[in-house]
């Protein structure tokens, strides 16, 4: 019975496939064509789709269908595997790496996998776990502006407050003399999140005299101060005064803005968050850099400091 079924099966194949066989059109309107089975001269039939003389599939007289031999992949090729395999000579085993994010490093045309390093190859891990601002501080710079109207006369104060007008602009200034040192005092409330023990400053000036500074002519201002905590005296000793200067460029004229450069670090004695700092600003006309032989109007002093932002 088995041999009879085989003969019937083989006959069916001969009828339909020996010379090729076409069925009705497929879903795309093209006829479906099956490859032809051809005798190989040894009683078997084969399919040779690429016509290279090698059978892709063969069938013998008993109806046994045999596919062509398929060779294994080369053991020397580079593979990425989950588990190490001793038969592969050039594999990379993921099991040999630690747990983490994979980093592919390409050299030439070869890629090698390693574990990416948190904070070096990507942002995450420790930063994300500390993202809550009450456990991770962010240091930034900030600037406080203290307008001239808030300052009080020191040992020898400048001219009284006046308004410099160049319509439509107006600004309050106090003119500092070019012939004698003049000084003013103020208090600055230290922010609760300040960091460090120093600040920098600059002075916002306006040219109030009809004669502006020539190229290279300038002014010199100095700032010094001390921090006063609860139960400490107002007269706490100031730290060393630090200079900030501005030089004319040859085109400065009356009513022009004239701003000194940011100073070097000013040490405010004992500064601490939430305390009160007493400040003294003065123009030093005997300083070599102060050679603009006219009064200069001061609008404000800016204090730059570092602060640590949190949500406390």
Description:
- This protein has 312 residues and is mostly beta strands.
- The protein folds into three domains: 2-67, no CATH class; 72-131, no CATH class; 139-309, Galactose-binding domain-like (Jelly Rolls, Sandwich), CATH 2.60.120.260.
- The chain has two helices and 22 strands.
- It has helices at 2-17, 126-129; strands at 21-25, 31-34, 38-39, 45-47, 57-59, 65-67, 80-81, 92-93, 102-107, 110-115, 138-147, 152-153, 162-166, 169-176, 182-189, 194-206, 218-228, 242-247, 257-259, 266-267, 276-283, 296-309.
- Strands 11, 13, 14, 16, 19, 20 and 22 form a seven-stranded antiparallel sheet that branches.
- The longest helix has 16 residues, at 2-17.
- The protein starts with a helix and ends with a strand.
- Residues 15-26 have low confidence and may be disordered.
Structure keywords:
312 residues; mainly beta; Jelly Rolls; 7-stranded antiparallel sheet; 2 helices; elongated
Oligomer: single chain
Global structural class: mainly beta
Terminal-residue CA separation:
91 Å
Order of helices and strands: HEEEEEEEEEEHEEEEEEEEEEEE
- Portion in strands: 35-45%
Mean pLDDT reading: 84
Describe the protein's topology.
Blueprint: H1 2-17, E1 21-25, E2 31-34, E3 38-39, E4 45-47, E5 57-59, E6 65-67, E7 80-81, E8 92-93, E9 102-107, E10 110-115, H2 126-129, E11 138-147, E12 152-153, E13 162-166, E14 169-176, E15 182-189, E16 194-206, E17 218-228, E18 242-247, E19 257-259, E20 266-267, E21 276-283, E22 296-309
Parallel strand pairs: 7-8
Antiparallel strand pairs: 1-2, 3-4, 4-5, 5-6, 9-10, 11-22, 12-15, 13-14, 14-22, 15-21, 16-19, 16-20, 16-22, 17-18, 17-21
């Amino acid at each position: 019975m088995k041999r009879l079924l085989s003969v019937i099966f083989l006959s069916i194949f001969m009828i339909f496939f020996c010379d090729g066989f076409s069925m009705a059109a497929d879903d795309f309107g093209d006829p479906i064509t099956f490859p032809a089975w051809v005798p190989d001269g040894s009683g078997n039939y084969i399919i040779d789709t690429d016509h290279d003389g090698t059978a892709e599939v063969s069938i013998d007289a008993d109806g046994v269908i045999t596919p062509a031999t398929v060779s294994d992949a080369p053991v020397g090729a580079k593979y990425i595997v989950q588990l190490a395999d001793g038969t592969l000579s050039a594999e990379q085993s993921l099991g040999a790496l630690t747990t983490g994010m994979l980093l592919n490093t390409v050299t030439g045309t070869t890629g090698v996998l390693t574990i990416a390093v948190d904070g070096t190859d990507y942002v995450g891990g420790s930063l994300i776990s500390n993202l809550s601002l009450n456990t991770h501080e962010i240091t930034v710079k900030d600037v406080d502006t203290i307008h001239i109207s808030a300052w009080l006369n020191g040992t020898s104060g400048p001219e009284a407050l006046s308004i410099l007008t160049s319509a439509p602009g107006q600004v309050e200034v106090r003119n500092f003399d070019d012939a004698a040192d003049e000084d003013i005092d103020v208090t600055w409330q230290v922010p609760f999140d300040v960091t460090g023990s120093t600040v920098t400053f600059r002075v916002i000036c306006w040219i109030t005299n009809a004669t502006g500074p020539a190229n290279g002519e300038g002014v010199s201002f100095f700032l010094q101060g001390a921090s006063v905590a609860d139960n400490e005296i107002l007269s706490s000793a100031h730290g060393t005064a630090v200079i900030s200067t501005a030089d004319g460029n040859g085109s400065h004229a009356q009513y022009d803005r004239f701003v000194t450069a940011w100073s070097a670090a000013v040490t405010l004695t004992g500064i601490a968050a939430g305390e009160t700092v007493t400040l003294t600003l003065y123009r030093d006309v005997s300083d070599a850099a102060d050679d603009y032989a006219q009064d200069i109007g001061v609008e404000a002093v800016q204090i730059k400091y570092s602060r640590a932002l949190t949500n406390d």
